[in-house]
Amino acid sequence: MNSPTPNWRERAAALAIDGRALVDGERIASASGETFDKHSPIDGRRLGAVVRGRAEDVNRAVASARAAFDDRRWAGKAPAARKKILQRFAEGILAAKDELALLETLDMGKPIRYSLAVDVPATARCIAWYAEAVDKLYDEVAPTADNALALITREPMGVVGAIVPWNYPMIMAAWKLGPALAAGNSVVLKPSEKSPLTALRLAEIAVAAGLPPGVFNVVPGYGGEAGEALALHPEVDAIGFTGSTRIGRRMLEYSGRSNLKRVYNELGGKSAFLVFPDGDVERAAETVADSMFFNQGESCNAPSRVLVHESIAADFAARVAALAPRYQPADPLDPGTVMGAIVDETQLDTVLGYIAAGLADGASCLAGGRRARAETGGYYVEPTVFDGVTDSMRIAREEIFGPVLSVLRFADEAQAVAMANASAYGLQASVWSDNVHRAHRVARALRAGTVHVNQYDEDDITVPFGGYKQSGNGRDKSLHAFDKYTELKTTWLRINPA
C-alpha cells in the first residue's frame, strides 16, 4: 500500500527549527549569543533564529577539528571502519528524507518535489559512494632501482574548511564532505547564511551515525564574518569553496594572507548551448528549457547562453518561449510545482535588474520578464526568454543566477566556437549536431570542464565536476576529488646489499 502524500504545509507549520551551531558533537549557541532571523523565500515567514558565527566560534570549531585530527580518532581508523560509519551516515540521510527535503524547500525555495527526488537522494548517494571508494584506493610503489624502495602514500590533509552556497545546500556540502571525511580529514562547514538549516541537521545525523565528536563541525553565519575567519585560520589546511568568482578571488587572497592553505574553488559559469541546423531542434529546445529553468535558474552550470545557427535561430527561440508557461513559478510546497522561489529579495532584485538591462540593451523579451506571485510575500520571477542578444550585452556575459535565457546567433562553426570560448567562464557546454565529426570537433575545441553532446546536465557521481578559466580549479565528485583533500607522501628506503 502506498503511503499518503504528506501535507507539506501542515508539516512546515509544525516544524521546529534548531539554528544552533554544531561543534565537538554538540549543539551550541554562539560565543556572543548573537543570532540572525531566517525567513523563507516562499512567503517571507520567519523560520527561526540561527547562530551568527564569528571568529571566536570558528576558532572553537577549528580547535575541535584539529584535536580530532591530531589524536587520530577518525584518521587513525582503518578505511573499512570509516566506510561503515559513513554508510550509516548515508542511511540516516535517507531515513530523514522528508525532514531534510522540507528544510531545504523552506530555506531556499526550491520545489518540494525536487528536494525529495533530487537533493536528498543525491546527498546520500554521494556520501555512500565515497564510503565505498575509500577502502579501494591503493597506494603506489615507484619503479626505482633495485637498491631502493620508494613508497607513495596518500594521507589526509588535516583540517578542511568547507564553504558552500545556497542553491544546492545539501548536495554541495556532500561533494566536500564525502571525499574529505572518507580520506580521514576533520571538517568545519560554513553553510550560506541564506540556507543553513540542512547543514546543521546533516551534522546531527553524522554524529548519530558514529562520526566521532570534532570530526564534522558546522558554524553558520555571514560570509564576511564566519567565512572569512575560516578561510584565514592558520590551523585550516585546505578550503573547499563553491560560490561566486568574486568571492573565490578572496579565498585565494585569504590563503596568501594566512598559511598558504590549499584553496579549491568551484565558481561561476555562463555555459554555452550550441545548436547546429543538423541537430534535433525540437529536443534541444525542450532540453534547454528544462535545464535553464530547473532550480529557478539558480545553477552555476545553467545553459543561459544559447548559441543557435542563424538559419534556425528565430524558430528555436520561438519554441523555447512557447515552453516557458510550463515553468511558471508556483507554491514550492505543492508537489506539482516545477519552479519555485528565488532565494531572497537581494537575489530577486539582481535577477530583475539583469532583465531590465537586457531590455535597455535592445534584446527582445519573448517570454516572462516580470516578478510573479508578489502577493504571497515571496520572491518569484517568471521564466524569461530573450532573443536578439549580442555578445556585448550584460545578459550574454555575466552570470545572472535566475531563470533568464538568452539566444544569440552564429553564422558558422568557427564563429560558434569563438563565441562560446569568449566567455571568462568555462564550466559546462553543450553541442547539438547529428554530424558525429562536427560534434567531436566542437566538443574538443570548447574550453569547458564538461561538454555535453545532444543532451545537457546528465550526471553521475563517478564523473568529475569543475571548470576551466574563472570557473575555478580542482574537481568535485569522482575519485579525482580525493586529490583535493589528501597529500602525497614519498617514503624512500635504501636497501643495503647483502
UniProtKB/TrEMBL annotation:
Oxidoreductase recorded as keyword: yes
Keywords: Oxidoreductase
Coiled coil: none
Keyword Oxidoreductase tagged: yes
Positions of the Aldehyde dehydrogenase domain: 30-490
InterPro entries named in the record: Ald_DH/histidinol_DH, Ald_DH_C, Ald_DH_CS_CYS, Ald_DH_N, Aldehyde_DH_dom
One Pfam short name: Aldedh
Name of the featured protein: Aldehyde dehydrogenase PuuC
Organism: Rubrivivax gelatinosus (Rhodocyclus gelatinosus)
